[in-house]
Amino acid sequence: RLPRRYVLCEVVSEDPRCRQCIEDRAVGLAVREAIGRVHGDYGLACCSISFTVKYLNAYTGTVLLRCRKDCYRLLCSALPFVRQLESRNQRYPCSLNTLHVGGTIRTCQKFLIQYNRRQLLMLLQNCTNEEERRCVQKSLLSCSLTEEVSQSGDEEDDDGTE
Questions:
Q1: pLDDT digit string (tens) for 71-105?
Q2: What InterPro entries does the database record attribute to this sequence (predicted)?
Q3: CA-CA distance, 19 to 149, in Å (whole number)?
Q4: How many CB atoms lie within 10 A of CB 34?
Q5: Which residue has the higher pLDDT, 143 or 149?
Q6: Which CATH class is domain 1-103?
Q7: Which of 55, 131, 133, 157 fits 64 for a cystine, CB–CB 3.0-4.6 Å?
Q8: Which class for 93: exposed (0-12), middle (13-18), buried (19 or more C-beta within 10 A)?
């Protein structure tokens, strides 16, 4: 098993349509292009061996990239040079902001929960009326890493077989 690193990034764009139209293929191509531009063929070859986009949430603009442990610094140093994403023959100007580098997907998930919680707290401080405050508080209370335990009789099949 090869040691890997997971890089958690955020897509930052002025255009609201950018987040709705991004795809993992477009993010992967833009990152590979930036690596090739910054580090040349050697850097591109090193990073391409096990590089992949593991997770993409277009709604929040969160991207999780995976690469080999020995070349994650090449990847991280090329991420600020991503200038645009191309999707459906449209180009959207944006940048990738590195949030966290972790050894497992689980550590990145834990960081993302804490990061989102801090962002919600900042939103709570900036609320102007009580309705906004209640919505943000509800969102803040729903941030947890606990698994939901299902009831024993709730998950039977429709035909009665198990």
A1: 999 999 999 999 988 878 888 888 999 999 999 99
A2: Pop5/Rpp14/Rnp2-like (IPR002759), RNase_P/MRP_POP5 (IPR016819), Rnp2-like_sf (IPR038085)
A3: 33
A4: 21
A5: 143
A6: alpha beta
A7: 55
A8: exposed
